[in-house]
Amino acid sequence: MRKLSLFITLLLLLLSPLHVKAQGIFNLNHSNLQSIEEVSDSQIEKLVSQMEENGLSLDEVLNIARTKGATQTQLRDLEARIKDFLEKKEEEQNEKQLLEGSNTIDAIIDSTLFSQKVNIDSLDIEKQPFGFQFFNTENLNFASNLNTPLSEDYIIGVGDNIHINVYGVSQRDYALQVGKNRAINIPNIGPVYIGGLSIAEAKKLIKTRLSSIYNGMQGNHPNTFVSINVVDISGINVNVIGEANRPGTYTLPATANVFNALYLAGGPGANGSFREIDIVRDGKTVATTDVYHYLINGDTRGNIQLRNNDVILIKPYLHRVFVEGAFKRQGIFEAKPGETVADVIRFAGGFTANAYNKQVSLTRNNSRTLSFKTITAEQYESTPILNGDQIESGKVVELYENRVSISGAVYRPGNYELTDGLTLKQLIENAEGLRDDAFVERAIITRKLDNLELKTISFSVKDILEGKENITLRKEDNVIISSIFDMREDRTVEIVGAVQSPGTFSYSENMTVQDLIFLAGGFKEKASISNIEIARRLNYDEAEEYSDNLIHTYTISVDRNLQLISEDKDMVLMPFDHVYVRNAPGLNQGQGSVTINGEVKYTGSYSISNKQERISDIIERAGGLTPEAYIQGISLQRREILSDAQYQSKVKIAEQDSTMNVKEITREEYKTVAINLKDIMSDKRSGTDLMLQDGDQIFVPAKMQTIAIKGAVLNEVSLTYDKKLSAYDYIRLSGGFANNAKKNKVYVVYPNGEAHATRCFIFRNSPKVVPGAEIIVPEKPQIDRTGQAQRWIGIGSGIAGIAASLAAIISITK
């Protein structure tokens, strides 16, 4: 009860965030408690939790306890208990964070603390020495691997964090950091100097020191054990100097190796060596890295782990060799003193499959001149390399010692081995013999002579097979046996017209017209089967004699089941015949339609029923005119399809006229045809009652009440129709003529498309005006008066010149 009394009292204090309220509820009965040590750890934990939730500091809690009568001893003990709890809590949190990591760097290292790869200026990789691309391409990355486990050889440095876990009978965790004095401070043991030791050496030393306070670790049967790990390491600074692409100081993880640093610095530069890179540590060269050993042999012995303040010295190159030709790798390679042509060939990956590897060409710089050497395969190992050497390998010449070939009408054309005494007949047999289409009268052998000229040898294939003749073959002989189809023009027949798939087809013996129509998919519905025409070229004998005849023509009939009429059954096609299937006469024009809109009872499209159908017919089929129809305004738009010549002519005109747009020119145009429906309906079938054509468009407008005045007037306007007014009356109502008006050429365009102009004999007679008409006043053409003046000046000058000449002549004659 005494422990609980003190805990509850303190808890009530901390439940109030305000000091005033805390004073009202704090009632410490210190006489009920002998010592603060009697309070349990869980009670202290709850007490601290309430402190943190209410934002009270330890000093505030102690001051309030002091005002309520707590003794100095009780206050000191309470302060110590709370501080001890807070320290243990912080230590546990740190250890938990460390334990959530691992013995690899990725869980405990922020990669942003280390140097990043420098950007190398854009360079042509192919022009750089071999090895450059391995440090400067995206495909190969020598960036430091932050997931690399620490090896037992890792040297512990200042700032590294050590996690010690004691387990077994005794249990304890330590999270310690190596201080500037290179030691960790283990509670109850003191400093242990592990800085500069490897992980293996540090573990041994720490375990020895821990054994002094954990007896269970000693003896042959220990019951207490220890696990020691480096869980957080500091970075190292490495200086890359000499002929590097980007020399400088780089910060890397302590696990970094030489290639990691070279990668960050962009590797050796334009004059840097890939073969001799020194690692200097404490003023001494501890290793020399040869990048080629890794790139060519996969040897990583020179790629050692770096330490803080290591210096990587990239020396200038000594020998560079230019390799080209039939090698697997081409480019610039670096050679050490004493290395030979054989070493360079190995660096280049060896010869390609088509290389002539018996020798290479070597071009050498002798300071003043160049020398050329041929290095044979026996000399590869003994020929040293000098700076600036150029090595080139050629390709094998495609010259066969024992090859012959056969092509054409045999079953297995191709190359064959030339055996001793191989004959032409044996070669044909080796090629599985002749095809059925072989041309046996003549074939040839193309033979390469000793001076490399070609010679043609002709022979009869039939005589060779019958044993009447035989030819012994030589290397590189090429035998050509043609097919009968190769010896003549491709034989075809053509069909055009009213069939499903007109076109050109291969000719075959005994082919008939119905066979060709079958191949073309049969007749179309509109085909005429009684007038099929065949056009046939002249035969050889006829073509030898000049005549007016160009072809022979034949006309035959075929029923729709592709049976020839009896008298035409023996008609067989010949190569290059042309067959024409024409349309039946009654289907030549096809179906047409016209459109009628406006003031008729039934507007829309109508099929043209016969060739003689006229405008009056279509109006009657449309139900006739409505009462609102304006007869004088009926118009007809007729479609006109331009021929190729007309279309091309318009396109050329448009191309030369900047005011015209070529894209707007189409092959189809609509033109207005003026019609007088009153005359048509009064005298049907007359000349004015036009016959309909496919695409005609008839428009019957409603009654109109206005007229329009346009052109060279002062005010273009539409006015109400008045039958008493003439065209000139309407012009006056629009403001009169403009200054540039051509008054005697006024014309009226009527709603049906007709136009009448002013007539002048003795008196000017203007056209009649009807509702819906347009009165057009044209403009006078503009006259270039400046040009006229210049012409008159020229004429005057010419006359003056002539007068002066005449005067001179007269004076001479006098």
TrEMBL record:
Protein keywords: Cell outer membrane, Coiled coil, Ion transport, Lipoprotein, Membrane, Palmitate, Polysaccharide transport, Porin, Signal, Sugar transport, Transmembrane, Transmembrane beta strand, Transport
GO cellular component terms listed in the entry, alphabetical order: cell outer membrane; pore complex
Biological process, per Gene Ontology: monoatomic ion transport
Polysaccharide export protein N-terminal domain ranges (all copies): 151-215
Residue ranges of coiled coil: 68-102
Pfam families on file: Poly_export, SLBB, SLBB_2
A single MF term (Gene Ontology): porin activity
Domain Soluble ligand binding as annotated: residue spans: 238-284, 320-364, 404-448, 493-537
Subcellular location: Cell outer membrane
Lineage: Bacteria, Pseudomonadati, Bacteroidota, Bacteroidia, Bacteroidales
Name of the protein: Protein involved in polysaccharide export with SLBB domain
InterPro entries: Poly_export (IPR049712), Poly_export_N (IPR003715), SLBB_dom (IPR054765), Soluble_ligand-bd (IPR019554)
Domain SLBB: 594-700
Assigned protein family: Belongs to the BexD/CtrA/VexA family.
Residues making up the signal peptide according to the UniProt record: 1-22
Membrane-related topology note: Multi-pass membrane protein
